[in-house]
Structures are given as C-alpha cells and as structure tokens.
Amino acid sequence: MTERIRNIAVGLIVRDGHVLAEEYSATVRYGGFLRAIGGGIDFGERAEEALRREFQEELAVEIQAAELLAVTENLFTLAGRRGHEVVHVFSIRSDELERMPLDERRRIIDGSSTAGWWPLDELGDETLPMYPDGILDLARSLAG
Predict the structure, then answer these.
(1) What is the bridge-based pairing of β-strands 130-131 and 33-35?
(2) What is the CATH classification number for the domain harbouring 128?
(3) What is the pTM of this model?
(4) SS in 3 state form for 33-83?
(5) Is 1 part of any domain?
(6) CA atoms of 24 and 114, how far apart (whole Å)
(7) How far apart are CA 130 and CA 137, in angstroms?
(8) Is 76 inside any structural domain?
(9) In this predicted model, what pLDDT tens digit does every residue of 66-116 receive, in sequence order?
(10) What region, left, alpha or beta, does residue 95 occupy, with left being phi > 0 and alpha being psi -120 to 50 degrees?
C-alpha cells in the first residue's frame, strides 16, 4: 500500500449541548468511536463542495450554510495501519438535520455506520472518543 496524505472535509452541527456525529462500533481490531461526518476531497473539488457532496451521499441532506472553522492535521493508527489526514472542518447549518430528534439514529447510506446526536459532556478519550483529533474542542467552542 502506498502511503499518502488524505485531504478530507467534515462538518460540525451543535445543538442543545449535542454534536452530530457518525458512530463506528467496536470490533476485535479497535474500540468504538465517533467521527465528524464528511469525507474525501476529490481532485479539482473545493473542500466546501466535497463537504456538501458527502452529506448528500451519506445522509441525503442539503447543507444551507458552511463556514470554515479550521484546517487541522491528523496522524493516527487504526487497526494497525497508519493514516495521515489534512482536515477542513466546517461549521454547518442543515435545516433537515437541525429538525432531527436528539434520540434518532440514521443509517449512513453508503456504509454500515449510523449518525446521530451525542451529548458533548459525555464524549472524550476516556469515554467515547471522537475524531479527527481536536474536533471535540471545536464542537465545544460552537456550543458556547
């Protein structure tokens, strides 16, 4: 496998002390975790365009507004494989997602995971980690 740096765009929505995130269940190779919703930026595509496309592909929802919060770098190991990402983090507004009940879980269309609202005060390295690194701090800053 060729090692490469992956450029991704992810979106944050915070509502009533909860953050919208994608849940990955624990396996024999790694523990369960949350991830900000989004995905890879294709060649010739702007980060915001990728973000909008990913939310459409994964949840079939439109994003009404997106504001770039930060660009971060994430070095990690998952299931024994090293990863390196440059992450464009956006604060987003989606009327449909903001109406989604806090206890609802939605299946990700192109995957086996689900998306839902998670209480910010219950997340962290010692409980349920959320990636990419630093994303919880950004979500908490949006919560006020």
Answers:
(1) parallel
(2) 3.90.79.10
(3) 0.91
(4) EEECEEEECCCCCCHHHHHHHHHHHHHCCCCCEEEEEEEEEEEEEECCEEE
(5) no
(6) 8
(7) 10
(8) yes
(9) 999 999 998 988 778 898 999 999 999 999 999 999 999 999 998 889 999
(10) alpha
